[in-house]
Design a protein that fits this description.
alpha/beta; Nucleotidyltransferase, domain 5; 2 domains; 6 helices
């Protein structure tokens, strides 16, 4: 298996190549903006480091969200283009799946993933098989001990602990392409359900057309 994994969901751009079941190359850059410009270069770097060309790939995986509108589109568009040119299989990986891959087993604790929505009044929460946008004050009380991952995990942990929940804060904050690749490999093996490579948006994009340009054209 020759698989390229891409991520730009949460301000970190990363790319990794998996050969068989081993990560052969990985690169990442911390950047809040400009993901679309960084990701193709990172993909080229890891392919070169692994001794591959894009046409050699069997599969390409990209994170689908939740996350940055621009980052998700950049990763998915690049993945789609590489698959169109090589015939490789296109796979989607949720941000919560990639973060869960990075967290060691914690018997007796359920993993919740809290992500920064880039809006002050709420976070994205992936918990108990559902994903939604919530105000921190509206976070549900866990039914038992939980562990928290994601870039908004410290905020969510503080709110939950203040309400008496048993919370453990993990070190997993942003996805790594290596973990995206490992989730995608399990998806290819049929160990976990398929996930379409389509962006998961819980909020509309923050960009808006100027008022003038949204007015109907004169007759």
């Amino acid at each position: 298996m020759r698989l390229l994994a891409l991520d730009a969901a949460l301000g970190r751009c990363s790319a990794a190549v998996l050969l068989g079941d081993v990560i052969a190359a990985e690169r990442q850059r911390e950047q809040e903006r400009g993901e679309a410009a960084l990701l193709p270069a990172l993909a080229a770097e890891v392919l070169d480091a692994a001794g591959l060309r894009a046409s050699d790939l069997d599969a390409v995986a990209a994170t689908v969200g939740p996350g940055s509108f621009t980052g998700l589109r950049a990763a998915l568009a690049l993945a789609e283009g590489l698959c169109a040119g090589s015939g490789a299989r296109l796979l989607g990986v949720a941000v919560a799946e990639a973060l869960a891959e990075a967290v060691p087993p914690m018997p007796g604790r359920t993993l919740w993933v809290a992500l920064d929505s880039r809006r002050r009044d709420r976070v994205f929460l992936a918990a108990e098989g559902t994903v939604g946008a919530l105000r921190p004050a509206d976070l549900p009380r866990p039914g038992g001990p939980v562990a928290l991952a994601g870039d908004a995990a410290p905020l969510a942990a503080a709110w939950l602990a203040a309400r008496g929940a048993d919370v453990l804060l993990t070190d997993a904050r942003r996805p790594r392409a290596a973990d995206v690749a490992r989730v995608a490999l399990r998806r290819l093996r049929g160990e976990i359900p398929a996930l379409a490579a389509r962006p998961l948006y819980l909020d509309p994009p923050e960009a808006r057309l100027p008022v003038e340009s949204r007015r109907p054209a004169p007759c």
